[in-house]
Amino acid sequence: MPPMTDYRFVTLDMPADPESWPVVFSSIDPSADGGTRRVELHRDHLVLRRRMAGIPMKVRLDLAAYEGLAVALLDPEGDGEGVAVVLLHADPSLSVTLYSAPHANDVVAEWRRWSAELGRPMLVSEADGSRSPAYPMIGRLTVAGVLARRRRRGALKDRRPSVFRRRAAGRPLAVPALSVGGKGALAD
Question: Is 27 within 8 Å of 39 (Cβ atoms)?
Answer without folding.
Answer: yes
